[in-house]
Design a protein that fits this description.
This protein is mainly alpha-helical. It has a domain of 127 residues. Strands 1-2-3 form a 3-stranded antiparallel sheet, with no helix packed on it. The longest helix is centred in the middle third of the chain and has 32 residues. Keywords: Membrane, Signal, Transmembrane, Transmembrane helix.
């Protein structure tokens, strides 16, 4: 039977990761081109950089959630063999889907955090073109939040189906797991 504590802690971690990813999307850095006091040069002024912290926090909470699920299920491949039925096959498909969405979510959150922290530092001559104040594109953290949500749903279903398949393990009638011939 699936542990309610593992499911509860995983859901809490995933909800916190989702909320931090949404907060990071809402608080992305913005920039303005500002002239210096002598009006000879222009440079970029960036506002708060809190979105980077939110993105890294979301990344870490999602990582903790996945570590908990993978430790509880022994990463699907380790541990005792599972009962051969639908639950085992569905758990395998959910394991693959959960791993894929986890990787995409982590990449979105990491790329968004790194790109949000990057600020251009050069100046432009006042009467020429303004410098390019590069900022993070809209939607990177939002895509990360979507994949965090998908990872949360898939990982909970994966854990439940894995636990169901593990309830009655596949046993052999006093035979070794790998048939071996005497030499």
């Amino acid at each position: 039977m699936a542990s309610k504590i593992v499911i509860g802690v995983t859901v809490v971690f995933d909800v916190v990761a989702f909320a931090l990813a949404i907060a990071a999307e809402q608080r992305r850095s913005t920039a303005q081109v500002v002239p210096d006091s002598e009006k000879a040069y222009t440079y970029c002024v960036y506002d708060s950089d809190i979105a980077t912290g939110f993105g890294v926090g979301a990344l870490l909470f999602l990582l903790l959630s996945q570590i908990l699920i993978m430790a509880a299920t022994r990463c699907y491949c380790c541990g005792p063999s599972l009962r051969r039925d639908r639950s085992r096959y569905c758990a395998f498909v959910l394991f693959l889907a959960c791993s894929l969405t986890f990787l995409v979510a982590e990449l979105c959150l990491l790329a968004g955090s790194v790109r949000n922290a990057y600020h251009t530092r050069y100046r432009g001559i006042y009467y020429m073109n303004d410098p390019s104040c590069e900022v993070l594109r809209k939607g990177v953290f939002a895509a990360g939040a979507v994949f965090v949500f998908l990872t949360a749903v898939l990982s909970v279903f994966y854990y439940i189906l894995h636990s169901k398949a593990r309830e009655i393990g596949y046993t052999y009638a006093n035979e070794p797991a790998i048939a071996m011939r005497p030499l």
